[in-house]
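Reopening this one. Same input as before:
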Amino acid sequence: MRHEAIYATHPNVVTVDDTAGAFDANGNQVVLDESLVSAKQAELKAAIPMKLLRAERNQRLANTDWWASSDLTMTAEQTAYRQALRDITDTYTSLDDVVWPEEPNV
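Same output, byte for byte:
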């Protein structure tokens, strides 16, 4: 995560070595602003629960994509379920506290 934070905060960095430091395209060492790197690391870490929530939500949507096939017609319950999944990130920010909508019977 530190490397990702370095690349995000120092766009001229092309290589990071944990022992030697960060370097630009010409091989010159880049002096890092550690306060920027630390802040970005904290931001990236804070975003992890939402990324995990979205990944689970996306998988649940993918599992029902066949409902929306052109030769099928979704029921109102199926449509509502898929919409509830899309809206889940408006209410929850972590997998730890999410209450998933109940999948309708097909």
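So the earlier flakiness isn't reproducible anymore. For the record, Residues 49-106 form one domain.
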